[in-house]
Amino acid sequence: MIKAGVLKNANGSAYIEFGDNKIMCGVYGPRDVHPKHMANSSTGILRCRYHMVPYSVSERKNPAPSRREIEISKVIKEALEPAVMLERFPRTAVDVFIEVLQADGGSRCAALDAASVALADAGIPMRDMVSACAAGKVADTVVLDVNNEEDQAGQADMPIGYMPNLEKVTLLQLDGIMSPKEYKECIETGIKGCKIVYEIQKKALNERYFGDDHK
Amino acid sequence: MELDFKALQPAEYLATFLVSPNPLLLFSVGSFVQEHGLRPDGRKADEARPVTVNTGSVSTADGSALVRMGGTLVTCGVKAELSNPPVESGDCGYLVCNVDLPPLCSPRVTPGPPTPRGQSLSQHLQDTLISCRCVDVKDLIVGQDNLCWVLYLDVVCLCDNGNVRDAVFFAATAALRNTSLPTVDVSSGSPEVSYQQRHPLSLPHLPLAISYSLFESHILLDPFHEEEELSSGHVSVVVLSHLKMGQPDCKLIGGLTKSGPPSLPSQKLIELVHRAQKRARLLADLLLTASGDKKT
């Protein structure tokens, strides 16, 4: 389930529930870059912050950003960059902020899904949506959307970020062991999952702008 | 035209809304302007924004709540972990409060370490909960064998549209009420934790903050963020609410802060405290309805 336009302050926002993942995303931009030396004179920059609240996981997590959160922030930024038309906004920044309220495996994919919807909600021009879903291997079988329990006991986890209309992959990671045949099957399954998520992303934006509770 | 005025002279813009239609009242001795004017969002000076609360939606937390006050959105989660009691006074547990204002919540917040605003909110919440005995850390002891609960109370502001303090206190109160601790069986030597059998926290009363901002001569209840920025002073009243038996009792005052100009006569402060008690009663009723404990 995805709901767009849920935060008053952010220029664009989205809330996603993907299995037991509950994630809030807000986008500000294009806006001035502080510190100024980070601004790029020929193109806008995209900045991303993925953060988990302390009670989002079974063992309380320290509020300070961990190495994993910084890695995921980088990965999500790089997955969104091909889609956002940053060259239209030189010397500005588009900030994507993600707060994970509850996590249960595949949160980077769910976060990416919410971030795409939030960017669209902010009216930032994009070449395509980015839809993400993870596939994986559990008990020698290729499966779609691995949750936390399956990830702990499983053999591989492959998050995929995909632009459905341009048919291009913007994020691909793999943890685990696979044969080339399983790898091919995994990517195909993952892309199928991404296409399903894309329909839900479109639905969220449709409801926000053309639905009954149009604000 | 109106938006230009608002951008260039924000304080005058706000003041124009609040001017009393009766100029004689401006000069009456011993009383401030009667609040007859309206604020830019159509509220009177002593009117608050609509409040909604939702509890127990985060299953990874032992207690959770989501509070919306107008556009301000705050979420709180409580997590309990077992630990050893402090060496100096070994008969109590710990309560650790943290309020986070991430860059998501406002265009004015940049990523980085906690700001003085966030830290002072954390401290205010922690001090109130401990000094008013809302959570008795002595109750957090488990058995006799050097074991205690550590309660982590983490509040995260998702959207700061003004009056975050009230939303933080309400979310913390709602989350604490929603919290249940697993049962620990220490009878067999080594502690056995049963996550299925849970019992609620013992909470004699819980704090509700009601804040006003002081803008020129006006006292505005539940300020939204533009009013807060333009205001020179603030008053916060913490009312302790006894929420048992389905009938809230909101009489005790657990804290009072007044900062910034203009200075107020003590009679005015007493009046604000009375109004805060009434508002606390409304919030307590809402919380009881949300958690299904309201006596009908």
TrEMBL record, chain A:
Q: Where is the Exoribonuclease phosphorolytic domain?
A: 2-125, 128-192
One GO MF term on file is: RNA exonuclease activity, producing 5'-phosphomonoesters
- A Pfam family this chain is assigned to: RNase_PH
Carries keyword Transcription regulation? Answer: no
Protein family membership: Belongs to the RNase PH family.
Task: Kindly state the subunit structure of this protein.
Answer: Component of the RNA exosome complex.
Listed name of the protein: Putative exosome complex component RRP41
Q: Which organism is it from?
A: Geodia barretti
Q: What is the lineage of its organism?
A: Eukaryota, Metazoa, Porifera, Demospongiae, Heteroscleromorpha
UniProtKB/TrEMBL annotation, chain B:
Q: Which organism is it from?
A: Geodia barretti
Task: Provide the Exoribonuclease phosphorolytic domain boundaries.
Answer: 47-182, 205-243
The similarity annotation says: Belongs to the RNase PH family.
GO (cellular component) term, any one: nuclear exosome (RNase complex)
Bilayer-crossing regions: none
Q: Where in the cell is it found?
A: Cytoplasm; Nucleus, Nucleolus
PANTHER family from the UniProt entry? EXOSOME COMPLEX COMPONENT RRP43 (PTHR11097:SF9), EXOSOME COMPLEX EXONUCLEASE RIBOSOMAL RNA PROCESSING PROTEIN (PTHR11097)
The protein depicted here goes by the name Ribosomal RNA-processing protein 43
